Amino acid sequence: MTIRSLDDLAKIREENKHKVGLRESGQGKEGAAEILVGMTTCGIATGAKETLEALTEEIKAQSLENVRVVPVGCIGYCFSEPTVQVNVSGEKPVFYSKVDEEKAKEIVQKHIMNKEILKDSVLETDYGKA
Amino acid sequence: MENVKSQENKQYRIALRNSGLIDPGDISDYIAFRGYEALGKVLTEMEPAEVAKMVKESGLRGRGGGGFPTGLKWEFTLKAPGDEKYLICNADEGDPGAFMDRSILEGDPHSLLEAMVIGGYATGANNGVIYIRAEYPLAIKRLQVAIDQAREMGFLGKDIFGSGFDFDLYLKLGAGAFVCGEETSLIQSVEGKRGEPTKKPPFPSESGYMGKPTTVNNVETFAAVPPIILNGPEWFQGIGTETSKGTKVFALAGDINNVGLVEVTMGTTLREIIFDIGGGIPGGAKFKAVQTGGPSGGVITELDLDTPIDYESLKNIGSMMGSGGMIVMDDSTCMVNIAKFFLEFTQDESCGKCTSCRVGTMRMYEILEKITNGEGTEQDLINLNDLARSVKDTALCGLGQTAPNPVLSTMNYYKHEYEDHVYNKKCTAGSCKALLSYSIDPEKCIGCTACLKVCPTNCIDGKAKEVHVIREDECIACNACFEACKFDAVIKP
């Protein structure tokens, strides 16, 4: 559709607003979950594509329906790539560092399915934003 | 979008606000995070001059290196006579070690497109060009997808937001010449000519692309524009130092634990960036210096680590902001060698148009090579200093004018290292191979033959259980014996 006014824009924003809550603070629709994978040149070079595929396959294998895998840009933590952010509705988003295919499967099985955070792989991030 | 800047956060992100949070290939993600709202506001509620004024009042300055006030640049173009004007985005990121623009282009391409339409409106331009280096294939792909989506939704094209304003843009791929980051060379290159600078004045705002008034802004500069429109100039004014507002993205590289991109408010100290955010130096090594501003900047030593960073303060300590590359060096780094490394880069990238840069950078490089080879003389040190100063004063464009900076700043802060190379034929950091002489400590050597076996030139004499000796004239200083010895018997200078 073509946007002709600020009202048109506001409508589209409203339809997608749930993404903001879920990604920024974990406020989203009950049962919704998302896994964001940093997919810029640097992430891909360290294996983010394989990570993304492993996540998608595991979600399929476990027949999880409300979990989306989303390719995103990078958060600048090059030293810990590939990085993954897990957003589960009702929980604070969690960042994971150096997520290879094995760890990707573990994230789905433990974090998504059993609400068990992989403590050793958590990446502490510290920034505010505009 | 929360507008809370907490004191506890070490980083504050404006340019990178959406990177890592949105799918760059999905315009609805960008819209969810208030994307294109600033554009809608500008086109439906503001006059072009008001937009330029707002950006001017915010205090935003060019993030590509120059630090020129963005709003002022926009006003110049807006006021320039003529009804055909252009807006160019400089995405020709070429500083070794800097990749913040790539990260924005790949992670949040719509923020650039939105800001460019705003910039077009504010400067009276209906056409835009994104000059992007061909070495960024993924960024190019994602930008093209974003451009197609923006066109489909009417954010690019005719009568945007029903305002009657038309704007469209296209991608121009650069061939990766460093000099094309300089705006006049960049314009030449967009026109299909050879990428060489032209003299200023006339400035691009009077006569740029095709002789028409043109504005050139960097990716990171553009990325800060939509939040300024949405949150107001006062909000941006409130962040940073007296002369430099907002935030700056730095690319941390070199001898540092947390290699990556950081975005901090202006006025953060280098110590906070390197030690708090960057996690310090790996392997317990000691910090020696940090190079900011890439090949155009200078080294900053331990003494100046507590300087709050802004455009002016970095200049005062002999370096510059540049595009935000930050190369950290530990104490195994030879400063003469570092100057040589940057000069090798600039002499290679010099376009050759003006003599002082073409010949000057080459001659400086040759002198540095002589010094690192242990053949330098006192006269070389004098010549190097004179040459650096005259190239700085006489080169045509920014590339040549700043190329001597690594030499001047290392000669200023590490003069003793230059003198050691010249007078004592010694490289204390142990990195100039021609000046390294390896030997074996007869007290510690037990005659195990480990070094003898790994020596690629067979220049170590000795038998089992006898003290070994290195024949210095044949040694190539490869360090293999040093690494092989389990008894610390190999002495490295």
Provide a descriptive summary of the structure in words.
The complex is a heterodimer of chains A (130) and B (493). By secondary structure, chain A is an alpha+beta fold. Chain A is built from four helices and five strands. In chain A, a hairpin with a 5-residue loop joins strand 3 (84-88) and strand 4. Chain B has helices spanning 27-32, 37-45, 48-58, 70-79, 100-107, 109-123, 137-152, 183-190, 219-223, 225-231, 233-237, 270-277, 311-316, 335-349, 355-372, 378-394, 398-402, 405-413, 415-423, 450-454, 480-484, and strands at residues 11-13, 86-91, 127-133, 157-160, 165-174, 214-218, 247-254, 260-265, 287-292, 299-301, 325-330, 439-440, 460-461, 469-470, 490-491. In chain B, the strands form four sheets. Chain B has a five-stranded mixed β-sheet, sandwiched between helices. Chain B has a five-stranded mixed β-sheet with strand order 8-7-11-9-10. In chain B, a hairpin with a 5-residue loop joins strand 7 and strand 8. In chain B, helix 14 runs antiparallel to helix 18. The model of chain B is unreliable at 1-7 (pLDDT under 50). The chains are: A alpha+beta (130), B alpha/beta (493). Chains A and B meet through helix 1, helix 2, strand 2 and strand 5 of A and strand 1, helix 1, helix 2, helix 5 and helix 7 of B. Strand 5 of chain A pairs parallel with strand 1 of chain B.
